[in-house]
Amino acid sequence: MRRYIVYRFLLAIPTVFGVVTLVFLLIHLVPGDPVDVMLGETARAADKVRLRHQLGLDRPLPIQYARYLRRLARADLGRSLHSGRPVRRMIVARYPATLELAAGALLVAALLAAPLGIAAAARPGSFLDALCRVLTVAGAAMPNFWLGPLLILIFAIAVEWAPVSGRGGLAHLVLPALTLGMGMAAVLTRMLRATLLDRLGDDYIRTARAKGASESRVLLTHALRNAVLPVVTVLGLQAGALLAGAIITETIFAWPGIGRLTLLAIQTRDYPLVQGCILVIALTYVFINLGTDLLYGAIDPRLRTRQ
Amino acid sequence: MSSVVGNRQVSAGLAVVALFACVALLAPGLAPHSPATQNLSEDLQPPRSGHPFGQDKLGRDVLSRVLYGARVSLLVGVTVAGLSAAIGLVIGGVAGYAGGRIDDLLMRGIDVLLAFPGILLAIGLSAVLGPSLRNVLLALCAIGWTGYARLVRAEVLSWREREFVNAAVALGAAPLHVLGRHIVPQLLTPLTVQITFGMAAAIVSEASLSFLGLGVQPPTPSWGAMINEGRSFLLVAPHVALFPGLAMTLTVLGFTLLGDGLRDALDVRRIDQ
Fold it and tell me: Which of A66, A229, A231, B96 is deepest in the core (most CB within 10 A)?
């Protein structure tokens, strides 16, 4: 297992390096002079020179890159152009809210997908299975920037079961978590149903049935245990993708997380903050994927020996 | 082919996609009003005769804007899926056929791009390039080709060892000829399925960027931007966000059904059985 962990970590290094490089280059893709875009073309020349110097844009690209890497090594993401506060501190302050939302969405997805997927696989071709299929296709097709307002309209405005926006306890979390988790629930339900049906056709299931195991025991104890492995992988990959989805969900529900901070930074053209937010979200995604790989390797020994 | 024709998912998906394409192409003839004409004295009016989907905050006809919004979605879906598939075909084909260091280099580059979750890189690119339809297309193509390249590379790796490919190589065919004439035709089936899903993804991504204010700019109607505008009036005028959302969901549903159906119907192993 140790060799497998080292192998996976080594594999992640070039990816992390590439992500850092791409985020660094992002500001250089700004058409024209980035300082003009940030301050506006009518800004005073002295202010432009000062900002250019502050961002290091007055130096050759390789030197800018070396300086960027040096600062990153000290976890220094620069300062926000608008508030003047360190970007790292601003992100750290918002990060828990995004994690809370992502955890809520994961929980929603798991709570919806587990019973639906199992029920559909237990009676393939039944009305329940068909209903489940319709719900999952519709759930996957519904974009979260439409589902969110729809949930607000029904549950916050019409029946007043949940607050419209903001963060502050479980009641505030329900609608954003549902919005963010619904698409994932659809994917997981389909995946769980498909893998369960695959397992139910295996020889060891026939053996369990021949030995007199009840249908619920066959399904929940024997088939589910093996069907859950690929679902864990998808869960890990989707968990990372939730972070990108959080930008839209946090905007809809005024959730004070890193996604909303990213959008505010974009709207105010605060590029150091934009770079910092995108870098942190992308690196979180890389490490969640790495964690999923390690978890999968721990669950399935065949993967470790294959490396 | 009969497996495609008889597939219920393909039929349902195709019907929805055909309806969406017709609406997009015929929008100028179908729309009862101009999508940009404002009537401030009739702002946020509910659905009624003459305005079946109601009016938005500037008194514009929501139905006309939904119909014209389909044009933006169709343009983005076709362009992004087409260009991404073409780029992915070239890069994935070269990586899979050349192998070795070229393959390693290209695949590591793809891994870096895939390290950005979902739409994040497109948001970053749109943020620095500035909001416009052209930049949306650029940003979505920049992230969209990676999936196609991976698919094509994997397919090329499996096809390049087949006997008919080896025979072509033994007869002295140039690598480009082998790739273009013998291998690429084998990839059309998986590519078709991937393009169908890719169009749905591109449509949702464009709408997401427009929803965040990073996509198509007013007064050009885009479903994402319309939903964002309607969010502020959910209490008094829910129709402003409701109808573009319905159109969007129905369209994505159509492409998903079509993609699912094609994947099932064109599965070579199943057809062989």
Answer: B96
Q: How far is residue A26 from each of residues A92, A103, A272, B46, B130, measured CA to CA in Å?
A: 22, 29, 10, 44, 12
Residues 6+ apart with CB under 8 A from A252: A144, A145, A148, A149, A152, A165, A176, A179, B231
Residue A236: Cβ within 10 Å count: 19
**Are A285 and B208 a contacting pair at CB < 8 A?**
no
Q: Which residue of A has its CA nearest to B113?
A: A19
For residue B244 the two structure tokens come to 């573009």
pLDDT reported for residue A306: 55
CA angle (A255, B245, A246) in 5-degree steps:
25
Beta-carbon count within 10 A of B167 CB: 11
How far is it, in rounded angstroms, from Cα A129 to Cα A116? 9
Identify whether the C-beta of residue B206 lies closer than 8 Å to the C-beta of residue B73: yes
Q: Which of A23, A24, A136, A145 to mutate to test the interface with B (most CBs of B within 10 A)?
A: A145
Query: What is the rounded CA–CA span in Å between residue B87 and residue B141?
Result: 9
So what's the pLDDT on residue B270?
43
- Whether the Cβ atoms of residue A209 and residue A199 lie closer than 8 Å to each other: no
Round to whole Å and give the CA distance between A264 and B97: 45
Strand partners of residue B263: none
Taking only residues 80 to 139 of chain A, the set having a beta carbon closer than 8 angstroms to any beta carbon of chain B reads 137-138
Residues contacting A216, CB < 8 A, separation 6+: none
The overall pTM is greater than 0.90: no
Measured CA to CA, the distance from residue B121 to residue B50 in angstroms comes to: 42
Q: What average pLDDT is seen over chain B? A: 90
Q: How far apart are CA A88 and CA A247, in angstroms?
A: 18
CA distance linking residue A217 with residue B68, whole number of Å: 55
Amino acid at A117: G
- Tokens, residue A287: 């490490």
Look up residue A221 and give its two tokens: 């104890």
Q: Which residues pair with B48 in a beta bridge?
A: B51
Which token pair is A101? 């939302």
Residue B273 and residue B255: Cα distance in Å, rounded? 27
Query: Which residue of B108, B211, B260 is in closest CB contact with A145?
Result: B211
| Contact present, B111 and A15 (Cβ < 8 Å) | yes
Other CB atoms within a 10 A radius of the CB of residue A141 amount to 21
Of B120, B228, B242, the CB nearest to A281: B120
Tell whether the model's pLDDT for residue A192 goes beyond 70.
Answer: yes
State mean pLDDT over B40-66.
94
**Residue B208: its chain A contacts at CB < 8 A?**
143, 145, 248
Query: From the DSSP assignment, how many helices (H) and strands (E) are in chain A?
Result: 14, 0
Annotate B124-163 with b (16+ C-beta within 10 A) or e (fewer).
Answer: bbbbbbebebebbbbbbbbbbbbbbbbbbbebbeebbeee
Mean pLDDT throughout B32-50? 92
Task: Report the gap between the CA of B204 and the closest CA in chain A (Å).
Answer: 7
CB interface of A with B, residues 189-218, below 8 Å = none
| Arithmetic mean of pLDDT, A249-262 | 94
Of B115, B118, B125, the CB nearest to A18: B115
For residue B18, pLDDT over 60 is answered with yes
